[in-house]
Design goal:
The protein has strands at about 5, 10-15, 20-25, 35-40, 45-50, 60, 70-75, 80-85, 90-100, 105, 110-115. It is mostly beta strands.
Length: about 120
């Protein structure tokens, strides 16, 4: 069973930075497209960022473009999200996402809270 385990969430002041990491328990990690989604209280889960299997292609939501950076290390089976210039509206539970052979996988989520 594929497991995605996030870490790195926490409380930070507006303007600060956090780095989220997600470790995947799958030896074929390099075949997985990976990404991050988030869900704020009372809102639907929304797309944040996506990275291709090789890491050569990245896509970002307009709301985080220029502030967040997604990256991956296929040797370490890890995907990361560097979040800079955080805003209170970035407060949400952040979920690691993986897709391979038409199947979606999700982590359990990690809370990010940005205080004003």
């Amino acid at each position: 069973q594929v497991q995605l385990v996030e870490s790195g969430g926490g409380l930070v002041q507006a303007g600060g930075s956090l780095r989220l990491s997600c470790v995947v328990s799958e030896r074929t990690f390099r075949n997985y497209r990976m990404g991050w989604f988030r869900q704020a209280p009372g809102k639907e889960r929304e797309f944040v960022a996506l990275i291709s299997t090789s890491g050569g292609i990245t896509v970002y939501a307009d709301s985080v473009k220029g502030r967040f950076t997604i990256s991956r290390d296929n040797a370490e089976k890890t995907v990361s999200l560097q979040m800079n210039s955080l805003k209170p509206e970035d407060t949400a539970v952040y979920y690691c996402y993986g897709r391979e052979s038409g199947v979606d996988y999700w982590g359990q989520g990690t809370q990010v809270t940005v205080s004003s």
